[in-house]
Amino acid sequence: MQTNLSQSFSQELSAEVVEAILRKCVHCGFCNATCPTYQLSGDELDGPRGRIYQMKQFFEGSPANTEMLKHLDRCLSCRSCETTCPSGVNYSRLLEIGREAIEVELPRPAIESIKRWLLTRFLNSGWLFGLILQCGRLVSSLLPASLGNAIPARQKSVARPTSQHQRRVLMLSGCVQPALSPNTNAAAAAVLDRFGITAIEIGPRHCCGAVGLHTSQARQGRQQAQKLIDLWWPHIESGVEAIVITASGCGLTVGDYQAIFADDPEYSLKAKKVSELTQDFSQLVLKERSKLKFSAIEGKRVAFHTPCTMQHGLCLTGIIENILTSAGYHLCQVDDAHLCCGSAGTFSLLQPEISSNLRRNKQDALTVDTPEVIATANIGCQMQIANGISVPVVHWIELLNEAID
Questions:
Q1: pTM to 2 decimal places
Q2: What are the two backbone dihedrals, phi and then psi, of residue 199, each rounded to the nearest 5 degrees?
Q3: Calpha distance 320→285 (Å, rounded)
Q4: Hey, which residues does 170 pair with through a beta bridge?
Q5: Tell me, what DSSP letter sits at residue 247?
Q6: Which residues of the chain have pLDDT under 50?
């Protein structure tokens, strides 16, 4: 793709990166074939190729407009297009730069900015989020189905180990996972205990910064990431062997700290070390699973949903399926496994119509082979898929812990 960046944008620090990404695109359109929003609308501007074209126009001097921002906001950032692209276009990085630059020239309406500000503060509020969740559970039967179905039932607690081991890892609690699915990290700690590893969680809840970074509040997202780095750093200096993440969305963000803080003189080296230590929980299990003995679970039928952040971001497709199969589970067929469930962090709250359509499609795809349970690897996907479906939806680590003798 030929480029002719405007004189004003060519002075920006990101201009060289933008030009390199744009020049890789060859207009082939393969990306549209795997783009969830393009599959729904059939609108070229709601596919990666169309969005790239809109951003190119802006970078070359066309004024920002609401239509341009609307189509960029409809992107799930699922990165399916990056997996498909034969030219290696770093679409997600281009979208990040483009959306931020467009919002500088064309600020969002006050009501939209306030909504995003309130959303991020609520999801990161801890006690307030937990309180409203508890109240929602009490009145869920009185609410409209669209709201009541979205409220997860309280989980029966999984016991956390109390033993201490010489081997130690850090484990991220997350912002909403402790309230929505506390058994995820409890089961993870139990599995780690069987490996002879102690899991260290810093406080009851901490956000990795993804919510702010994905809702046009980069400053808040960076501050949360810095806080997490500061809290982790003494343990890193004392020799923890890894930072394990049980939510693939958080894992992708923490793994990106090195890039996020690349130009920060205070945090660049620390962020690089954090990114190097970060791994998905499945990667640790893969290394250690020879130490596990599994009980008979009679081939329980499981449909596994691989989150977009895992298959297109972390590129870890197949690892969890392999672990579950070795544990004795029967993996069911899943249609269109590459497509997003529609959760995409805060997307389900900011783009509810598109998200609902994608959710229904994903639920149909996951139940085509009559599973007894659906498993996934990300809290957002877990809540999204469980909304209005009769099949239980759990984190895959709960199944692993259940199968261990």
A1: 0.91
A2: -95, 130
A3: 9
A4: 200, 243
A5: S
A6: none
